Predict the structure.
Amino acid sequence: MTISYAFQSQEAAERILGANDRNLSYIELLLGIELSLKGNIVQSTDTCSSLVPLFKRLEREAERKGSLSEAEILMAYEDVRNDFEGDIEPISILGKSVWPKSAKQREYMSSLRNDEVIFASGPAGTGKTFIAVAYALSEVISGKKKKIVLTRPVVEAGESLGFLPGDLMAKLSPYLRPLYDAMEVFLPLTQIRRMEDSGEIEISPLAYMRGRSIRDSIVILDEAQNSSRSQMKMFLTRLGEGSKAIITGDPSQIDLPDRFSSGLIEAVEKLSGIKGLSIVEFSSRDTQRSRIVRDIVKAYEKEDDDEKPEH
């Protein structure tokens, strides 16, 4: 018995399957069957109840987003497997859209819209910082929030900020580069500089936030795993009326002498269950940079698990 799916057009097939049908083997891997392509029809002699629902969903996604990545195909497959029919609006910035590429990213984007304090914890490449910056820019550019405040702990590996050369901006620049990389996806550097000059983008070392009350802003604390417990408590109590805090970090990359002194670790353990506060925990399966990066993260996670002492 042959099961098949006919794409609406050759263009639709190309969007889903990619150049030279490069995504076909990945879809075969997900479904656990062999597929063949004849014109606009993909088919298999293997039994698979997910084939038609998956390609229907992929065609709908491709119509909205254009060409699909492996990560987007994986999310569609997991939605079909879990009978998930919902969706979420993308983050939009000056005509550019950011869509979730995993179920966990979808949860994260929903939390950003609905909660006041959002923790995003997990390994590199899961989109924690990128999505936070995209959301913050969309809120400020649309006029919903007054400004973005970007902050990070700046004492790492025993090096104090005061010993670094240059003014405050020059000292902070290397620490904030990932945040600026994300902003530059959406805005030209000249516009980012204008937003800095107008106060719509503010840079502040975490240690300098003590005593402040920040209103009508999106505050992003990046690399939060390197904040101390007292710094995290201080940061969370800076939020004034109309502000939202997004805290991102990777517990596997703590540079503090004692990893259990991390403010991120303590906050995630203590604060779950508070109304208006969400904790989104990513894992290696949510890594979006590439399949090889996902495999590298998994390998390190396994090594860390093997090295944990038994109690």
